[in-house]
TrEMBL record:
Protein name, per record: FAS1 domain-containing protein
Leader peptide range in chain numbering: 1-22
PROSITE patterns: FAS1
Subcellular location as annotated: Secreted, Extracellular space, Extracellular matrix
MF-aspect GO terms: cell adhesion molecule binding
Length: 772
């Protein structure tokens, strides 16, 4: 019990050293402490960076036993007691630093009273030190080595949680600063040297093991550039851009510094052009600067950082070296200064803002760039003018395109070059853009896409010094003709077909309006994989789906889409569309409607779903509907039986027994209809609404047209062309019902025959039209 109590008590004492919130470093190594508990005392998890030889140890806790022994609360194995700073150097295996402390006469100081923080280089760190420098330190142990070790120390205890990002710790050598960076990934650096083993508590301070020997820092980035002959070109450019003095002021910067050789590789013509434009030069230089200190030890693979120019660069790791934008170019890293760090690179980083418009093209648009150059378009672009490239990807240049006459291909490519610089944020719906060939292109903005004519933009837009670049998957096809002109010239819509359509335009208008939407919708502008509801001019919705680069409307595939017209766009389909919500009262009537639609469109191999901007008068296609309640004769197997059925549909009705109904509340009418064979009679009564009352009504109508309108209402015919009205009135079968006695004798059997003759009447109307 005494042993357990002592261990618990010492654990409490040590926790007082770390009672603040855990730092990122502490959180990173917490799993190693758990591992140590599981595997035994004084066991630390060894961490290694993939692809490198770098290894880092986590923190292990030791506990003091009152009798001078140290034990782990998880085992009874005896451990070494905590020691002073000098002794702790041996505990953490920084034996080279311990030895140099001994021979430089530093040992008495770090064994004595005080509270120190010692950033102790590991044994490997001393081996990595340049031989000449290490020999110079050791040969002059009384001064240089002592001062060097003092620069690794602070006269105050700092645990890793106390080492805040951007903190400058005063060293014990001439009060020079030690620059701390504490990153979100848990990495803590001192002058870019990484703490690989932290928080080794000593009786007179704390020891942190670091991965390199650090040197005193006294120069700024400006000072470093000015005294190094490898940076004369860079220094001149910073001076020309009036940015050099900024690098001499306090701050936290990271500079990717190209050498003189790097600028030579850029080319004298490019360098001269950049120097001639001060804003472009500033953009180029600021693209090499970060507004933060990014030591190589803290950089995670694929990390993206915003430059002072405004765009991002990606910094990664390649073994022991660094990469910038995926290219291994860092010659020397972590040159630490008073206001940041320098990484030396072998290539110049050129941002888009410093490039001319043709230089913005990448490998995925190389074919477009080659063709623009070969056909002479690039040479026609003036150096003092601005342009916008609408560049199709390489896949858009099919064999058919490449086999075109070069004069025609040049005209097509001219449609992909705009006269002015238009960046993505400047595009708006309805905008009209002029090409260098004089064509006008229209802009369409959708919820998730921006389209120019038939082609929609994809990710990858760029802005250069004299222009902009936008990428698209397909070639642009500007509109040349109206929708009517396209349909007239199309082989599927010849003159005889158009004449047939015009023969009864009012009757067809409803169906045709269902094929038209008042707007321009490009296939690529629709949200992929989502059913888009487009309201037709008829009033019903069209269900349009864009998936796998194919457009479907009402589940019908569109074989030819995005035919641009000056007043809209056409999508050709292979079958007629008609609203699915047209009410049909019976299967027989449905078949009659299908026959009617088939007749009207029998010669149409194609029809259109067109979106246009012109006004079209909305009409309704006439539809036939069977009355709600009918007395019928049906053949039922077996012995007949009489059944009275009451069916409630909606509302509070009144049921009226009538000879015919002109208007008002629904009615019950008896109709005798012979279907087949010897019938058995079943009386069926349907209640439409409310409690029924039986009333006999006889209505006398003498006007033939009024009577015919009443018949239409009874049949739910919502539209009847005037010529069909006149034809019906003039027929003998109708005339008898326009007299008083004929009206009184109106029965369901004759009305049924009228329903069955509707198709003949349409044909009769067609004959009348043709004869006239």
């Amino acid at each position: 019990m005494k042993l357990l109590f002592a261990a618990t008590f010492i654990l409490f004492l040590l926790s007082t050293f770390d009672n603040a919130d855990s730092s990122a470093y502490d959180k990173i190594v917490a799993h190693s402490r758990i591992r140590a508990r599981k595997e035994g005392p004084n066991v630390c998890a060894l961490q290694q960076v993939m692809g490198t030889k770098k290894k880092y140890f986590s923190t292990c806790l030791l506990f003091l036993y009152p009798l001078g022994q140290v034990v782990s609360p998880f085992t009874d194995i005896k451990l070494a007691p905590i020691d002073n700073v000098y002794g702790s150097l041996g505990i953490v295996k920084a034996t080279s630093t311990q030895r140099y402390s001994d021979i430089s006469k530093l040992r008495p100081e770090i064994e004595g009273s005080g509270s120190y923080t010692f950033f102790a280089p590991s044994n490997e760190a001393w081996e990595l030190l340049d031989d000449d420098m290490r020999n110079a330190l050791v040969s002059n142990v009384n001064i240089e080595l002592y001062n060097a070790l003092h620069y690794h120390m602070a006269n105050k205890r700092y645990l890793t949680k106390d080492l805040k990002n951007g903190l400058t710790v005063t060293s014990m050598y001439n009060d020079l600063g030690l620059h701390i960076n504490h990153y979100s990934n848990g990495v803590v650096t001192v002058n870019c040297a990484r703490i690989i083993y932290g928080n080794q508590v000593a009786t007179n301070g704390v020891v942190h093991v670091i991965d390199r020997v650090i040197s005193a820092v006294g120069n700024s980035i400006q000072d470093t550039l000015e005294v190094d002959d490898d940076f004369t070109t860079l220094t001149d450019l910073f001076t020309t851009a009036e940015l050099l003095e900024k690098l001499g002021q306090p701050g936290h910067y990271t500079l990717f510094a190209p050498t003189n050789d790097a600028f030579d590789k850029l080319g004298s013509d490019v360098l001269e052009r950049v120097q001639s434009d001060k804003e472009v030069l500033k953009a180029l230089l600021n693209f090499h600067l970060l507004d933060s200190v990014q030591c190589s030890e803290a950089i995670m693979a694929g990390s993206s950082y915003e430059t002072l120019e405004g765009n991002n660069i990606e910094i990664g790791c390649d073994g022991e070296s660094l990469t910038v934008n995926g290219v291994k170019m860092v010659r020397k890293k972590d040159i630490f200064t008073t206001n940041g760090v320098i990484h030396v690179i072998d290539d110049v980083l050129v941002p888009d803002s410093a490039k001319q418009v043709m230089e913005l093209l990448g490998t995925s648009q190389s074919t477009f760039g080659d063709m623009v150059s070969e056909l002479g378009l690039s040479s026609e672009m003036r150096a003092d003018a601005e342009y916008t490239l609408l560049a199709p990807l390489n896949d858009a240049f099919t064999d058919e395109v490449m086999s075109m006459d070069q004069r025609l291909l040049k005209i097509i490519l001219e449609n992909h070059v705009l006269k002015n610089k238009i960046v993505l944020g400047q595009l708006y719906n309805g905008q009209r853009l002029e090409t260098i060939g004089g064509k006008i292109l229209r802009v369409f903005i959708y919820r998730s896409a921006v389209c120019i004519e038939n082609a929609c933009l994809i990710r990858g837009s760029k802005e250069g010094s004299n222009g902009a670049l936008h990428l698209m998957r397909t070639m642009l096809k500007p509109a040349e003709k109206t929708i009517f002109e396209i349909l007239t010239e199309n082989g599927g819509f010849n003159s005889s077909d158009l004449n047939l359509l015009k023969s009864d335009i009012n009757a067809l208008r409803t169906i045709l309006l269902y094929h038209i939407n008042n707007g321009v919708f490009i296939g690529g502008g629709l949200e992929a994989g989502v059913t888009n509801l487009l309201k037709s001019l008829q009033g019903s919705n069209l269900r349009v789906l864009f998936a796998n680069n194919t457009v479907q409307v009402n589940s019908v595939k569109v074989p030819e889409a995005d035919i641009m017209a000056t007043n809209g766009v056409i999508h050709f389909i292979n079958q007629v569309l008609y609203p699915g919500d047209i009410p049909v009262g019976s299967q027989d009537l449905l078949m009659l409607l299908k026959r009617l639609i088939s007749y009207m469109q029998i010669k149409h191999r194609r029809t259109m779903l067109c979106a246009c901007n012109f006004n079209v008068v909305k009409h309704t296609f006439f539809a036939f509907i069977v009355p709600d309640v009918t007395k019928v004769t049906r053949v039922i197997q077996g012995e007949p039986s009489v059944t009275k059925v009451t069916r409630v549909i909606e509302g509070q009705p009144s049921v009226t027994k009538v000879t015919r109904v002109i208007e008002g509340q629904p009615s019950v009418t008896k109709v005798t209809r012979v279907i087949e064979g010897q019938p058995s009679v079943t009386k069926v009564t349907r209640v439409i609404e409310g409690e029924p009352s039986i009333t006999t009504v006889t209505s006398l109508v003498t006007d033939k047209h009024v009577l015919l309108e009443s018949m239409c209402q009874w049949l739910h015919i919502t539209y009847l062309p005037q010529k069909l009205m006149n034809a019906l009135v003039s027929r003998p079968s109708i005339l008898k019902y326009t007299t008083i006695e004929g009206n009184a004798n109106l029965d369901s059997e004759r009305l049924t025959k009228l329903i069955q003759s509707e198709f003949d009447l349409v044909l009769h109307l067609s004959d009348l039209e043709n004869s006239s």
